[in-house]
Amino acid sequence: MIASLTGRVLAKSADRAVVDVGGVGYEVILATDAVARLPEKGREVFLHIHTNVREDAITLFGFLLEEEKELFLILRTVTGIGPKLALAMLSGMKVMEICGAILAGDIKRLTMLPGVGKKTAERICVELKEKVAHLSSGTLPFSSEGSDVIVAEGSVAADALSALTNLGYPDSVARKALEAVKRQQGEEAFAQLRIEILIREALRILA
Questions:
Q1: Is 205 left (phi over 0), alpha (psi -120 to 50) or beta?
Q2: What is the model's pLDDT at position 160?
Q3: How confident is the chain (207 residues) per 10-residue block, as mean pLDDT?
Q4: Theoretical Cys-Cys bridge with 198: which of 101, 133, 146, 160, CB 3.0 to 4.6 Å?
Q5: Domains of the chain, residue spans
Q6: H or E segment and range at residue 10
Q7: How many CB atoms within 10 Å of residue 182?
Q8: Strand 58-63 versus strand 24-29 pairing type
Q9: Does the structural domain 4-63 have CATH classification 2.40.50.140?
Q10: Cα–Cα dist 3/49, whole Å
């Protein structure tokens, strides 16, 4: 099974992208907001992948963040929620917002998600309350790895960190956002980003 892909973005559309990995183009289905967060065509991207195997098709579902993939898989355990609906839910609300609504038993908020009716929302709250608690801790969904992203005083990354903290983001949160940008762009492309692009990409992740 394919669990992740690292390659260049060849094409993007409303709900999918083609990623070139060593000369092979993989079509990956993504949430619409994830497509918007992808790097520009030709840039390197890392995607967490869920391989969905059926008798008539093998479909790759992609996620920029590990927590998005985890919630996708958790949602799939609920009767009546297939991969397309789970992905649509991730398009309509962020991971921590969905988890917060589940923990609060907020049926009305969940029914605002595309394709989610009252009965489905009730099942989600009953069946997933304990399963999603760790995803709603309020911490940003980034790995703690890669803390060496800020390596030199006066570097573009250090200036971007300063700008983000001046905007009110805690230092640790800003660093993790920059780490996420680095993973998405790839080390070489990350090193070449102009400060305004770096800040923009970090803010897009933090949004």
A1: alpha
A2: 84
A3: 91 94 95 89 92 89 91 94 93 87 91 92 92 66 45 70 77 79 81 85 79
A4: 160
A5: 4-63, 66-136, 147-206
A6: strand 4-12
A7: 21
A8: parallel
A9: yes
A10: 5
CB 9 within 8 A of CB 42: yes
Question: How far is residue 27's CA from residue 24's CA, in Å, rounded to a whole number?
Answer: 10
CA distance 201 to 64: 13
> pLDDT tens digits for 136-190?
654 444 444 444 454 455 578 888 888 877 777 777 777 888 888 888 888 788 8
CA distance 149 to 183: 10
Q: What tokens does 147 get? A: 């803390």
66-136 shares the fold of 4-63: no
66-136 fold: DNA polymerase; domain 1 (1.10.150)
What distance in Å separates the CA atoms of residue 197 and residue 185, rounded to the nearest whole number?
11
Residue type, 32: T
